[in-house]
Design goal:
heterodimer; A: mainly alpha; 11 helices; 69% helix; B: alpha/beta; 4-stranded antiparallel β-sheet; 10 helices; 14 strands
């Protein structure tokens, strides 16, 4: 260390930002930067990047490596298959499960949550800041993956313009963004309240939502996937024996419902942070 | 400074704890604890598991009292996070954000407190200088020693210039020089009129910072007041000192010549000595000279803090 401790010198320096609203923005931004930094430094993020590359590899395999003359689906059919089968049911769910739950579960696991909660930052600012960091990192990663996959498949049949008309990129990107927001907020909440949020999130995604077709109509509307389906272009419900047919939700309504779910779970997360005690073994 | 009942003083710089209890299931961590702490340094003394950390966490609003009420500046810390503008807390946890330097960490904590980036950097630099960590500021926290991490925690607690500073075992893992620096710093904060609460299970650490102490055990307040009264109690109980050296028999013969040494026993390996003294300060003053003048090679010197435990036992029985 070498140097000696000196008398406190922080006393004469300027204080915190006096205007509450401006200070709130700064605090939100500070929480976002702190989270972004710790998200990037995790090994888990590398796994997520590899996961996001899976659809790109699948598209590359189809376009460049499938032997000429092999019977294959059209680019449009293939993109729809990749989008629903890989992105919606797999990549988005895993990304939101691991990133969403980690926002608070990592802070609890690393015990750094104490440093967050002894700051004069409103809990809402911490939640929004952390969620922003998640949304930006997950959004950039998955939208980039979607864009590359789309670009690869758009030229596959030799008519990119027709592909673009039949498979609108922005509509798919919209589904992806809304799914990231909806599931992300839900799993952020899980991370703030459950000791093992990943298990709870897996249960939600792969047990509760997998029985979606068999659920009565009113229960279907308690799943996020119902609204994702309503927005997904060319999505068709599989015909499942004993399934309940539900009246589809309009895309407009689905958008607002997903935004509402996102906002509701962020509010619940902030409430959880206000009311929950984060105790560690050594505290006695 | 401290009293069991709230004195009619200004609530501005006081921490009021009224009949506070905290239990986890069937375990009572803090039991009907009342204290009023004003400006200056107050030592919170108790053995491990006494409930000190729980009490500090209740004071900073990390935990909600199961019963009773805590107020800082007349506000309840559990429900009012804005109180942290005035409160700095050095927790007992030894965890930090990954990949950060000490400077980055201090800046991040200040930005979360609502400082602009520029001000946060200036304050972080000043706080790190205050705790003697400025040379290591740009090193990653992962490369810090335990003592440096303790200093960093103290830095984040004081960087926003709080009126109330709560430090949970701040000297743990520090080298003797570091301890002295932080002890001096804590005393300075007390002299500046800040309300400082320092927890420790080692009496002489607390003694070096303040005369005002609160002794707790099993979540209850055992004694409060002047440290010298507790010290007198302590002196009735012999302090154990363990020495490993090359001439244990010779050293023991020299030591028993003094009245303060009440017993000496040898260990099986015949290199270790366990000494009991009723005047530890006089003993430790005499010991270095004795070792040097007789050319004794000392391998280790430890003082198991059993006598503090004895005082706690005594207070419980009382």
């Amino acid at each position: 260390m070498g140097n000696n401790a000196k008398k406190t010198t922080v006393a004469g320096l300027p204080g915190p930002i006096p205007v509450f609203a401006v200070r709130l923005v700064y605090q939100t931004w500070a929480a976002a930067r702190l989270t972004l930094r710790s998200l990037i430094l995790r090994k888990r993020t590398l796994f997520m990047v590899l996961l996001a590359c899976m659809p790109i590899l699948a598209a590359a395999a189809l376009r460049y490596w499938l032997p000429i003359g092999t019977a294959r689906p059209s680019a449009q059919q293939y993109f729809t298959g990749v989008f629903v089968g890989l992105y919606v049911y797999f990549v988005i769910l895993l990304t939101t499960i691991f990133f969403g739950t980690s926002l608070f579960a990592d802070e609890r696991g690393d015990r750094t949550i104490t440093f967050l909660l002894i700051r004069p930052a409103p809990r809402e600012a911490i939640v929004v800041g952390k969620f922003l960091a998640y949304a930006v990192s997950a959004g950039v990663m998955l939208l980039a993956s979607l864009a590359v996959t789309y670009w690869m498949l758009s030229g596959m049949d030799g008519d990119a313009a027709r592909f673009g008309k039949a498979v609108p990129f922005l509509e798919h990107a919209r589904v992806m963004v809304l799914a990231l927001l909806g599931y992300g907020a839900l799993f952020t909440f899980f991370g703030a309240v459950f000791k093992r949020p990943v298990i709870a999130a897996f249960f939600y995604c792969f047990i509760w939502e997998s029985i979606l077709p068999y659920l009565p109509v009113f229960l279907k509307k308690l799943t996020l996937m119902h609204y994702i389906h309503a927005l997904t272009p060319h999505w068709q419900a599989k015909e499942v024996l004993l399934a309940f047919a539900a009246e589809p939700t309009s895309p407009h309504r689905a958008i607002w419902t997903l935004i509402g779910i996102c906002a509701a779970f962020l509010v619940l997360t902030a409430i959880a942070l206000r009311t929950k005690e984060y105790k560690f073994e050594k505290e006695l | 400074m401290i009293s069991g009942e709230a004195k009619p003083q200004q609530a501005e710089n006081r921490i009021e704890v009224r009949e506070v209890s905290k239990w986890y299931g069937e375990v009572i961590a803090v039991n009907k604890f009342s204290v009023s702490i004003g400006p200056g340094v107050t030592g919170l003394l108790g053995p491990n598991g006494a409930g000190k950390t729980t009490l500090l966490n209740l004071m900073v609003g990390q935990l909600k009292p199961s019963q009773g009420e805590i107020s800082i500046r007349g506000r309840r810390p559990w429900s009012d996070c804005s109180i942290h503008h005035y409160v700095g807390y050095c927790p007992d946890i030894d965890s930090f954000y990954r990949g950060m330097t000490g400077f980055d960490f201090a800046v991040a904590m200040l930005c979360l407190s609502g400082f602009t980036g520029r001000n946060a950097r200036r304050r972080a630099k000043a706080a790190l200088k205050t705790v003697g960590l400025v040379d290591a500021a740009k090193k990653r926290i992962g490369a810090y020693s335990k003592g440096m991490r303790q200093r960093l925690k103290v830095a984040q607690a004081i960087a926003h210039d709080p009126t109330f500073i709560l430090l949970d075992e701040p000297l743990g893992g520090m080298d003797p020089l570091g301890r002295k620096q932080i002890i001096d710093l804590i005393r300075e904060f007390g002299q500046e009129g800040k309300t400082v609460v320092v927890s420790s299970h080692i009496l002489h650490e607390i003694e070096a910072m303040t005369n005002d102490i609160v002794v707790m055990n099993n979540g209850k307040i055992l004694a409060e007041g002047n440290v010298h009264e507790v010290r007198e109690l302590l002196d009735k109980y012999p302090r154990k000192v363990h020495i490993t050296c090359d001439k244990p028999r010779y050293l023991s013969a020299k030591l028993v010549e003094s009245e303060d040494v009440v017993s000496v026993s040898f260990e099986q390996d015949e290199r270790g000595l366990l000494i009991e003294t009723v005047k530890p300060e006089a003993f430790f003053k005499r010991l270095p000279e004795l070792i040097l003048s007789n050319n004794i090679e000392v391998e280790s010197l430890t003082s198991p803090d059993d006598s503090v435990e004895a005082v706690f036992k005594y207070l419980v029985e009382k």
